[in-house]
Structures are given as C-alpha cells and as structure tokens.
Amino acid sequence: MTDLRELLGIRHPIILAPFGGLSSVALTAAVSDAGGLGSYGLYGYDGERIRATARALREATSAPFSLNIWLPTGDEVLPGPEHDAYAAALESFFAEVGIERPARPERYLPSLEEQLDAIWEAAPAVLSVVFGVPAASLVDEAHRRGIRVLGTATTVAEAVALADGGVDAIVATGAEAAGHRVSFLRAAEESLVGLVSLVPQVADAVDVPVIAAGGIADRRGAAAAFALGASGVQVGTSFLVTEESAANDAHRAAIRSTAADASVLTRAMSGRLSRGVRNRAVAEIEASAAIAPFPAQNWLTGRFRAVAGQRGMGELQSLWLGQSAPLASRATAAAVFTELLAGVPAV
C-alpha cells in the first residue's frame, strides 16, 4: 500500500480536520509548515472567496495543503415560499442579536460547479470531500491536475463505495468526532460507528490508505489509531482550541469545559446531524420542533450565529466539539502537533 506521506507529499501523517466555517489560514498554514497536511473547509464559499482564500494560503505557506468541499446529496432545499416560515421560527434569536428577520436569498449555497472551477485554479495538493462519493469526472480531473482526492466514510460500506469510486485515501470518521456526521449511504443516526470499531474494519475492506478521525486528541489516541490499522490521523477539536484557529473565546471555553458525555448530536443548528454543545439555542430550537431542512436551517441560524460569534455570545453559537474535548488543552498548533507526533510510530 502507498505510504500516506508519499501520497500527499507530507513529512508526517497528521492532518488538520477541515472546519466548515471555522477554518483559518493561520492554522492551516501552521499544520502544513509543521510537516502535516493543513486543511481548509470551503463550506458556503463562492468562487471568488475560494480564490482569495487559496491566494492567502499560498502566501502563508509553501507546503502542501488541502481544500475541503461538501458534495450535494440531492435533498438540499432551495429558497422558496417556505423560507419566511422557517425564518419566523427563529425570530427570537434574530431579535436577541438585534438584526431583522433575513429575507429570502437567491441561493443558500454556491453550486458545486462554481466551487470546483475555483479549486482547479487554486490547484491544492489535496481535495477532500464529505457527504458522498465524488463523480468519476471529478476524480479524473483532480488526478489530471496532480491533485489527490480524499473521501470521508462513517461506515465500512461507505468506505468501500469511496474506494470503488477511485479516491486516493479514505478518512474513517468515528461517531466521537466533532461537527457534522457526514454519512451518505444511510441516515446519520443509523451510521454511528465508534472509531475503534470503524478503523480496523475499513482498513481490512479497502486497499487505499485509511486516515482515522474522531476522538484523537493526543499521543495516546494517535498511537491507538495506528495500532488499529490507520495510515494517518485527522484531528479537529485539539487544533480548534488553539490560538491560531478561528474559534472565539466562548467556543474555546466550551471545549475546555464540556465533559466527554456532555456533547450531543443535534440537527438544530443546520438541519443535519452534528456533534457539539447543547447550549440554549440548541435546546430551544429542539424544543420548538421547528427545524428547517438543510441548508435552509444552516443559512438562517448562520445570520444570528455570526453576530453572536462577534460578540462572544456562546449560547447562540454552533459550538462544535468532539467527545475528547477534555483532552484538548494545548494552546498552540505547534504544541498539539508535537504531542500527536509523539504517538506516530517510528518508520
């Protein structure tokens, strides 16, 4: 099997998880410069913003980096007459941060085609995808341009589908992981496999390198992942708490104070199942039972979440974190990287 480091052009098999909405150029560059693979999540980015982000990344680092996109699943709703009702259900949150109820936009998300056009121009070393198997044409175009493709699986069946689809490596993400559950063959609620069960079964089922993600926060988690058959590790929450990340102080405080059994899986903030803190916004939206489908819910809550984030109002933010949040205690990306590297087997 191809060595992951050789495949991705990196010195160490440590990958920064791509944070949709929370990525920062500084953190991505710090992980890449340390010899790992820095990742930047492009959820919601239009072509112009992708191009600007890629330019900033190239100015910040000369090392390889990854760009991440969400594949459309086909059940995404478009802005329609229902928008006003969806917005009305969140009226109290708009009022609390002092903004008007947002009018229906022309679109909730940019098209995949627009994003890919910009990504091909950006020419990252790696393109990672979530929520599905990339089309053969996408994989072929990436490979033609010298770009490696990573897919993301939450079950063995998803991993096999991705391998059959031609991806270069597979991120096996356990149910412990922060943020969105990126399942695509079955409902996310029916695809909650823990990392210890998932990684060895995926490693046995596919012939491409497997990257373990979910619950890995220090040298112990990294060592365990490699012992289970992983060729690399992808880490999110431990990097999210660092000073280089785009998380604000309220989010960092939530990571440091949330016990392993206190995070929840919820559709409240985005319409898709995600792991994070059950703060007041999550609790009240769940209690109302008025959760719009994706991406309408994500777009609407994003209007008040953005203001809340600027003001450090943690009770109105999406505070994504994984079950190993109590282990995320290091203040800098370099410190996290050094700790993880101590768990990587010697070659």
UniProtKB/TrEMBL annotation:
<keyword id="KW-0288">FMN</keyword>
<dbReference type="InterPro" id="IPR013785">
    <property type="entry name" value="Aldolase_TIM"/>
</dbReference>
<keyword id="KW-0560">Oxidoreductase</keyword>
<dbReference type="InterPro" id="IPR004136">
    <property type="entry name" value="NMO"/>
</dbReference>
<keyword id="KW-0285">Flavoprotein</keyword>
<protein>
    <recommendedName>
        <fullName>Propionate 3-nitronate monooxygenase</fullName>
    </recommendedName>
</protein>
<dbReference type="Pfam" id="PF03060">
    <property type="entry name" value="NMO"/>
</dbReference>
<keyword id="KW-0503">Monooxygenase</keyword>
<comment type="similarity">
    <text>Belongs to the nitronate monooxygenase family. NMO class I subfamily.</text>
</comment>
<keyword id="KW-0216">Detoxification</keyword>
<dbReference type="GO" id="GO:0004497">
    <property type="term" value="F:monooxygenase activity"/>
</dbReference>
